[in-house]
Amino acid sequence: MTDHSSYEHFMQETMLRDQVAQEAERLGFNQTLNALFFAERCHAGQLRKGPAKLPYIIHPLTMACHALALDLCEDDLLSTILLHDTCEDCGIRPEDLPVCQEVREAVRLLTFSRLPGESRIAAKDRYFSHIPENRLAVLTKLLDRCNNLSYMVYGFSREKLQDYIDETRRCVIPILEHAKRHYPDCGSALFLLNYQIFSVMNSIQVLLERRLP
Question: Coil, strand or helix: which one is 165?
Fold first, then answer.
């Protein structure tokens, strides 16, 4: 029997939090620190989907550490990353976030919602179509999808895995291509995100297509 608790060995909450907090303090990113404290309060008690039952805050913390490892060391970007799910999952209004207007707008664009009578597919298309308007939202969404692709095998059914890969190809890869064209200053980070997203996505696709004996 698989010990799902072992999945946490590379994503300890305390270690991730300390890394983000220490880097924010070193760089003088007071907004990131405020966002960190706020996100921790908002996501307190929430768990990631899947059998490992990890604290939800591990998701934005991992994304923030990923951004730092890619040398995407920006106060507004780290703040957006830490807060990107607070409105959608915690009922917070963008205007109530303890950050600047640029970060609030990025989080608003990253908050999925459905209009009355709108199908989920139409809502998703509308959601993804607006993200390229905002650099912070673009980079956060790419980091978000990279993290979710890496984690989804722990809790998704085969059907949901395939749907997520299909959505990534249809909706997220165009955002990645947009970023490559418009943000040459992030070229090295985007190269690595491209490699990571396609490596995980293609590996899972091969396993899904392999027929079991």
Answer: helix
Distances in whole angstroms, Cα of residue 158 to Cα of each of 50, 68, 161, 207, 209? 13, 32, 5, 10, 10
Residue 171, classed as helix, strand or coil, is: helix
Q: Read off the pLDDT of residues 161-183 as tens digits, 9 standing for 90 and up.
A: 999 999 999 999 999 999 999 99
Q: Are 110 and 135 in contact (CB under 8 A)?
A: no
Distance between CA atoms of residues 139 and 197, nearest Å: 13
- Give the C-alpha separation, 84 to 137, whole Å: 9
Q: Are 67 and 143 in contact (CB under 8 A)?
A: yes
Q: Which of 151, 150, 25, 140 is nearest to 86 (CA)?
A: 140
Position with higher pLDDT, 158 vs 172: 172
pLDDT in tens, 175-206: 999 999 999 999 999 999 999 999 999 999 99
Beta bridge pairs of residue 47: 55
What DSSP assignment string belongs to 16-70?
Answer: HHHHHHHHHHHHT-HHHHHHHHHHHHHTTT-B-SSTT--BTTHHHHHHHHHHHHT
